[in-house]
Amino acid sequence: MRVVRYLCFLLIAFGVLAMPAPSRAQIAVGISVHVGPPAIPVYEQPICPEEGFLWTPGYWSYGDAGYFWVPGTWVRPPRVGFLWTPGYWGWAGGGYGWHGGYWGAHIGFYGGINYGFGYGGVGFEGGRWEGGHFAYNTAVMHVNTTVIHNTYNHTVVVNNVHTSFNGGTGGISAHASAEEERASHEEHVEATHEQTEHEHSASTNTSLRASENHGRPAVAATSKPGEFSGKGVVAAHGATTSNTAHTTTASHTGSTEHSSTASHTSTASHTGSADHTTTAAHSSSASHTSTAHTNSSASHSEAKSKPSGSGSGKSNGGGKSHSSGGGSKPQGGGEKKPHR
C-alpha cells in the first residue's frame, strides 16, 4: 500500500513540474510610481541591420535608481506575421503603472504615446507583412533600399507631442478603441529573450538613468539589442557625448559618478528616490498604490535634420514625413528627416 501511495505522489509531482509556466504576457510584476516618466527623447533611428528585423521603440523603465531609458532597437519577431505593441505608463489608483508590451497579429492600445517611427499613438504605419515578408515604409523607417527591397513609401503625418504617459496631470488623454480592445484579447507572445536582456543591460548602465542624463540619453537607440557602443549607437538630440556606456560594474570615485554630464533644464530630472511598490498584477492592469504625482513630460521643439552617410535617417522629432509619389526612395546618402 505504501508503495502505491508513493508512486501516486511521484506521478502528481511530475505532472505539476510538466505544467507550462505562465508567460509574462499573462502575469507580470506591476510597478506603481508617484512621479511620471520624462518626455520621450528625440533621436534618429539607426539603419535596419538586415531584412526581417522590426523596430521596437525606446521607452522609460523603472528600477532602484529611478527611471532609466531602454534604447530603441531592431529585433527579430518571434514569428512571421506578428507586430510589436509597445508598453506604456498609465495613471490609475493614485500612481503610474507600467503596462508591458507584447507581440501579436494586430497592434493593440499603447496609451496614445507618440513613440515615433510609425508608432504615432494609434496603430503602426512603419510597415506591414506581405506574403511572409515584412515590407518597410521608408517614409518613417531607416532602411538601405539597395540591400532591402521589400519597401514602399507612404506619407505619415505625426505630431510634436512627446509626453510619455497616459492619464494623470499632463498625461495623454487616450482610451482604447474597440479594435484595440479586440487586439488585446488575441493570442500574444511576450517580449523575446533578446528584448528582456536588452532591458536588463540598460538597467545596469548608469548613463541611461534619468537622474544622470536629465531625459537626454547618449544611447537613445541601437542597431541591435544590447549593443550600447559602436557606430550603431545613436544619441538623443541635446545629449552630451560624455554620457557613454558605463555599467554598474565600472569603478567611479567621488559622490558624483559622471561630473561631466551637462544638466538640461528643459526636461525634468527624476531620481531613484521616488517611492514605489511592487505587486503581482496582470500586464494589462498593473497595480497602482501611490498618490502624489507630477507632470514631468514636455514637448521638444522641432529638431533640424542631420546628414547621414549611410542613408536617409529617420527621427522621432516630429512634422510630416513626405512620400515620393509611391515607389521606394534610394537610401544612399540623403538627409536625415526629423519626425516630431
Short description:
The chain is an alpha+beta fold.
Notes on the structure:
The protein has 340 residues and is an alpha+beta fold. The chain has four helices and 19 strands. The chain has helices at 2-18, 178-184, 193-203, 210-213; strands at residues 28-33, 44-45, 54-56, 59-63, 66-70, 72-75, 83-85, 88-92, 95-99, 102-104, 127-130, 133-137, 151-152, 156-157, 165-166, 221-222, 276-281, 314-315, 320-321. It has a five-stranded mixed sheet with strand order 15-8-9-1-17, with no helix packed on it. It has a three-stranded mixed sheet with strand order 3-6-16, with no helix packed on it. A three-stranded mixed sheet has the order 11-12-13, with no helix packed on it. The longest helix is centred in the first third of the chain and has 17 residues, at 2-18. The radius of gyration is 21 Å and the shape is globular. Residues 1-29, 242-312 and 319-340 have low confidence and may be disordered.
Characteristics:
disordered N terminus; alpha+beta; 4 helices; 3-stranded mixed sheet; single chain; 19 strands; disordered C terminus; 340 residues; globular; 5-stranded mixed sheet
Distance between the termini: 74 Å
Strand arrangement in the largest pleated sheet? 15-8-9-1-17
Order of helices and strands: HEEEEEEEEEEEEEEEHHHEEEE
Q: How many helices? A: 4
Radius of gyration: 21 Å
